[in-house]
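Handoff note, outgoing to incoming analyst
You'll be picking up this chain. Sequence as last confirmed:
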Amino acid sequence: MRTRRIIGCALAAALGATGLSLGGTPAGAAVEGTLVTCSTGTGDIGDAKFAPGLTTVEKKQTISGSFDATGCSASEAELDEIAAESKFGVTKTVAGGRPSPLAKANAKFKFTTYGDCLGLVLADPDDTGEYLPWGTVTLTFTTASGAKVATASVFATLTAAGASATVEGIVTKGLGVGGEFVATASFSPVATDDTNGNTSPDFVDCALAGDPTAVGKIVDVVAPATLSVTLPATP
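Most recent structure output, in case you need it:
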């Protein structure tokens, strides 16, 4: 079932990202190519929560959470050019007071879907009546000390296979507006999410054991993760 497969993505995508790209050419901007790249090492970088929780029965779900990416770098000269020419997402040059250098990124996400716990670790071919998880991703780029450099908003859908996820969408506001957003990530069931007390995460009980009493409500977003923001070549 497609939504089930996608669900893992929602976690991850929104969840931690292994790859992310933003593309867009604001009116008047001569900048093109990669503006920002991030490469995060290993470990837990965020989480994704399901409400009311995934079970063996299909139902509407809201998937929300956030993750952090470090190891970011940017072309400060190109960000200056965007600030000077378009002001889309970057309102000041470095000389004009923009905090620099860009070093970190935070992504907050919220998706809506319809499905059950299958698809997180097992494939399910039945996608009857289901649809891709859809929603929004809000990005905030900062310096190492947390000073805000730029933001972006994305309308996106999710697809997933196993414990990896892909998020694709359009940047609707901010850095890279009008461009394409792509992100990939990984997720991991949370051991403490064990409502029946059998020492196994509820996601595992639901997807692998088919336990009708298990309700999966949270997963970790895990690194390694990489992000990039890219503007396409102008016509």
